[in-house]
Structure formats: C-alpha cells, structure tokens
Amino acid sequence: MASLKLQYIANILASQNPLATPEIIIHELLLDSRKFNFQNQVLFFALKGGNHNGEDYIEELYHKGLRNFVVSKLPSKKYEDGNFILVSDVKEALQNLASHIRNKFLARLIAITGSNGKTIVKEWLYQIFNSSLNIVKSPKSYNSQVGVPLSVWRIETENDLGIFEAGISQPGEMEKLEKILHPEIGIFTNIGSAHDKFFESREQKTNEKLKLFKNISCLIYCEDYELINSAVRESSIKTENQFSWSSKNPEAYFYVFSKSVNKRQTNLSANYKEGELSITLPFTDAASIENAIHCWLCCLELGYDNLWIQERFYLLQPVAMRLELKGADQNSILINDSYNSDVESLEVALDFLDQQAKSRSKVLILSDILQSSLGSAELYSQVDDLLKRHGVENWIGIGKEHLQVQNSFERIKNSFKNTDEFLQNITSLNWQNKAILIKGAREFQFEKISQALETKSHETVLEIHLSRAVDNLNYFRSKLMPNVKIMAMVKAFSYGSGSFEIASLLEFHKVDYLAVAYTDEGVELRKAGISLPIMVLNVESSSFADIIDFNLEPEIFSFQSLEGFCAVLEGREQSNYPIHLKLDTGMRRLGFQQEEIPQLIESISKKPSIKIASAFSHLAAAGDDSHLNFTKGQISEFQEMSNQLVAQLNYSIDLHILNSSGISNFPNAQFSMVRLGIGLYGISPSTEEQNSLTPISELYASVSQVKKINKGEFVGYGLSYEAPSNRKIAIISLGYADGFRRSLSNGKAMVWINSNYYPVIGKVCMDMTMIDITDSDIKEGDRVEIMGPNISVYELAEKMNTIPYEVLTGISQRVKRVYFFE
Ligand SMILES: *Cc1c(COP(=O)(O)O)cnc(C)c1O
Known about the structure:
The structure is a single chain. By secondary structure, the chain is of the alpha/beta class. Helix 3 (about 90-105) runs parallel beside helix 6, helix 4 packs across helix 9 (about 285-300) and helix 7 (about 200-210) packs across helix 8 (about 225-235). The protein binds pyridoxal-5'-phosphate.
C-alpha cells in the first residue's frame, strides 16, 4: 500500500488550504465512512453519490478520531487539528491522485476489460507470474471509477508489474480509467450484454471500452468477436500493436486450430510466428478455455517460453468469484472464501465478516498463503495487521509456515500441520456464537472444514444473493426525493430469504428503519445484534414487555392497543416511548379510521409515556392501474388525517404510505418515509421495472434417485400417473413440506436440470417429487432448479394460482439458506 505524506498529496491535488499536520503519513484511503476502523493515517474522500454526500459524514468521522479529509467545500464548523484538502471535484481528485501514483511508482501495467472473464484472466495472470515477479493487482473485482483508484493506491515502489481490471457501466467512464491506468499491455476479453441498457448500442459500448487501450503497445483480443474486431480495426491503435487470436480464422495472428477436451483437461494447439505450439490446461469449459487463451498469448507476447508457460498452466486454479455465507451449528455463521488465499482478497472477505458478524466473535481459519513473493514474516505480519484492524482476535493457522510463525503472533490461538490434523481436533475447540471466515489455498481442501462446521440438511437449498439486494435497494433509492427515509420490510423471515443476514446487510447499507410482523421476529433481530430502529406491525398485549425489553417500536392501531401499551409503560415509569400510529384509509385492515382522529388526539395528549414516531397507512392497490382513483383517494385521506394529527403535536413525526409498487407509481406521495418490501427482494409487478431488478433468491433441489419404469406402471400416491410407455424417471429432494405445492402435481410444474425442462409426474409428496426424465442422461446428485434463472417466481406463482409473495414466504424453514456475496 502506498504511504505518502499528507502535504505531498495536497500538492498533487493542488490544494492551497493550510494543513494542521502536513507531515503525517497517509496509509489508507477511505471512501465509505462505514468502513472506518478507528485508525488515523486514513484520508477520507468526501465523494458525492446519487443520494448521499460524503461531506455529511465528516462530523461523525471526526468524532471517531479521523482527521484527514478531501472536500470540495470547507465545513462551516471549526475542526481543531482537522486537515482539509480543498479541491473542486472530489472524485476527480481521487482519480488524479491515482494517476500520479501509477505513473510515478509503477513501470509496467496490464489492463483488462470486457464483459466477462476480467477477474479470472487477472487472477490467472497473477497465478502465472506471481512466483517470479512482484505483482500488484486489483482486489476481487475493484474495477469501477472509484475501485480502480483504490486498487492503484496499493502500488508500491517494489512492484514490477501491475494487473488491473477496468469496468464501465456508462459512456464517458473509460477515458478516466485510461488516464489512471495508462496501460502498456491490454486484454479485451469479450463483449456481451452486461450494462447494455446504459449504451445506445453494443457498438457504442465496444468503442467505449476500447478507449482503455488508446495508448497501448500490445492489445490482445479474440477476433471471433466481430464487434471487437471491427472496432479495433477502425480504431487509432496501430496495426503493429494489435495481437488477435481466433479459433476460426487461419489467417489470424494467433490461430488456435485444435481444441481437444478429455476428462479434466483441454489440449490446445496454435500457429504462432511460423511455428506450432501446444498447451494443456486443467479446465474444460468454454469460458475457461477462452480466458486461458488470452493468458497464453499474453505470456508469449511478454517473451516467455512455451515450456515455462506450460508449467504454470498446469497449476492454474479456479477463481472463487464470490463469498459464501452459511449457517453453522451453535448459533455461528460461516463465510467460505476457500480457493482464494492472497492478502488482497482477505481484506475484502474481512469487510464482509464485519458486516455479518454483529455480536458474534470473529475467527479466521487460514491456510499457509502459498505462492507469495513476500517472505513469510512480512506476509503474516500484514495478515496480523489486517486482523487487528478488523477486530479478529482468534486466528487458526493451518500449514507448516503457520507452525513456524505461530509464536510471533499472539493472535494465532491454534495452529495445525494440515487440514486433517485440524479436523481431528475440531471438537475440542469452541464454536459457540462465532463468525468464522475460512480461507485457504486449494490444496488444503478447506471444503472439508466448511462441511464439518456448516449446519447439515438435505440438499435442498435456497440461494440468496446479497449483492442483488443491494442493487435493488439502490434502484429504489434512486427514485426517492432527497432526505426521504427508507423502512425496509423484513417481516416473514425477510419474505423467506432469512432474517439477520438481510437485516445486517440493510443496516450496513444504512436504511433508516426495519419492520417485522411479530414481536418474536424483532427479538430475534435484536439478539443477533441489529441496532436499527425496528417497527413491529402486529403487537399483541402479551408481548408488550418484550417490545420494551428489546427496544422495539410497536404499531398502535386501536384505542385498546394504545391504552394497554401505555399502561405497561406507566408501570415501568417510561416516558416518550416511540410508537407508530396506523391509519386506515381504505384497506380496512388494522388502523384508526378518519372519524376516530379527534378522540385519538385527545387520548395521546394525556399520555406522556409515549411519543409518536410516525403515522402511516397502507395502500390496497398501489400496483394496479385500474384502481388509480381509489389509491389517490387513500393518499388524500392519509394527507388529511395526518394533517389533523400533526397540527396538534409540538414535535415532528414521520409520515409514510408507499410500499414498493407505491414508490414506483406514486412518486409524489413519498412524504418523509417509504416502506420497501418485495422490491428489495427483486420482484416487481411491472415488466419494465422488473428489468431493473434481479430476484435475490433461487431454489434448488437435487436428484435422489433415477429409475426406469415400464409401460402401464404407476407413479406415486393415488396411482394418478400411469406410464404410457417405458419411461425413465427421477425422484427429487423436494415436496410440499418445502413449499412445492401439491397442486403442482402431474405436469402442472416443470423443473430445470442441466439444460432442459422436465415435468412433474404423479402427486407431489411431502418430501419428494417424481419427474419424467426419459431420453436424458440425468444422474443421481444432479442439481434441480425449481426457481431461478430458467423458472421465474412469477411462473411458479401462476402455476400455484397465487402471487410471488406467497411463493417466497412459503419456502419452509427446513430448506437451508445459503448466502452469496459477489
Ligand atoms: C408488507 C408491507 C409493506 C411492503 O409491501 P410490498 O408490497 O412488499 O412493498 C409495506 N407496508 C406494510 C404495512 C406492510 O405490511
């Protein structure tokens, strides 16, 4: 990581503003105030985003001890010993700093762009060169307008080579990344549909991406992508700097004329500079082959000998693109990041651990970090430093290097020679209430550790993709007026997708409120360490005590609930306890009605034990155009009722009426808060809006058995299916007790295996379902998609004669939830 004097940075950014302590050394850049970890030597860039302004966090950060800020406006308040670097545009300043560091401290740089494969190509080049060169690279996929500057900040004078990814989502962005990275060698992996919607056409997108290579001396690309090929040919990049490969065109500079796949390997042969070369790689899928050819040609152009390359290719390892979060026994959680064992990715995983651990104590299980060019003393003290910053006190080391260094680091509480020795001792360690991160090089086979610690269940899983929830949240945020708050609905186990995992994510991403249906759900969240305010929708008098004990905020919907709750508060001598008033404007569910408002005001005025936090109502048909007038009526009734209420209070309260469809359809009724539910989970009744959202959960079962049956035989209860001919069938691990309804029996539903749909036959059983797989080569253990990329929640809902809400919340608790964070 770069370490620069603050004054030096101020000079690069041409800031004239005097600094209180110009000589201090900056070790770390901070863009996201939530990631501040109480160190000084950090420089905060107060970036402005769609709906946040970094300058709003200066006060909070200052109080936590941070002193160094880059701002576009000096704060009006005086901050003693605060250092403020003043620039005209903070993002540009960050990029200028990065550009300076890159040009001054790094000789050679490979930049990679394209729609897919960027991270894999980068990681593979790293695996290939890492034992002979001192490399700096972007961690995970830090490839954006701010990710690239952060990656570049890692450059140190000792580095021989940088390998960086660059990604764009809009026109105009690549020029800026080019200025920062200024690559000599470039790889354009491919072009696909990602981010299409922000570009006029795919040609435009290709041309934009190509701007990364404006000043390139060696551009590697696959000319079989017509769009890339013609864009390169028409660009200003000199022909002698273009190095293309093809598996179709014998005239190509690098013609890959043969690919043969055997069990686990692929052999490739190519014509290169009047000769023939061959190479073997330990992968067989098309994407890996394409990625590997890019790497192969890149190595050749850098002057490496094919035999040298081959040795490295044998050792290529798969790259885990995402972190996996699972429940573990004894109230613990497990984050699996095996397959990645470098220090850069450790930091990304630790951030995720921070976000999810809450009150659990953090444990890292780490294998020896192989293939690093640093000496082990330095390497492990970098790890130790990271763990210190992330508050991880328990480090379990596995491997010979760990045995050697264990006495140098207090944090290493246990170390083992190898994974098997660890597994033999696993029960003697304490796994109660832990947040466990496991991270190990492939040969350590850490999947065995993950299997030993995770909660066991049958092979039916609901996969939940947390990054998609973040994207969906941001989509809805972009629809809100400034300062409108978000209450996220996490009732019913977050619409089926888990409770504290989603709540932790939302807390991290700073929603303002959470809402649950019942007190128990709120109590669970508090026990898991969630500290956001939580509103409880259905409060029974028997749970008033828990509400108060766990600092939850009840919805009050009747005089009876008001009196009852106040009585309990008074008994405990509580005052100003926050409550939420539910107003009924037409739904005719819980809530006070218009004519009750005067009496309500009267009652409240006599109750110092409570304070109204908000008043709200709920729309009955916000997603339905044909009831537009009804909804408008509800909104104006809410306006009237809340006006009456607000006029009588001498403090301000929040008002809210919109649910997800309401946010989309009634932008003028946002009041001061909205309640986001199904949209957060990626579902919208509008087809157009659905394109901007991604469902966060996918349901999978597995094939338990495959068998043949003869014509005339029956399948399942009630003999409702009779084979019309000889058939092959599969039994899959899912039934109505998992939420796969019995009404889906006998051809109603289809499932997806490998790349085809297969119909349900016979009646769906409690825990199993039979499907017809005649003419397929499906095997036991194959994965069965029930809901996911090929079967939408809408299709499933329609076949069950219901709505997506019911499908999602109907997936039973025994189905294991597995979380992914991309
Ligand atoms: C469930 C619920 C919501 C969220 O509705 P969505 O349609 O899922 O956005 C909002 N408000 C109340 C009172 C709810 O019960």
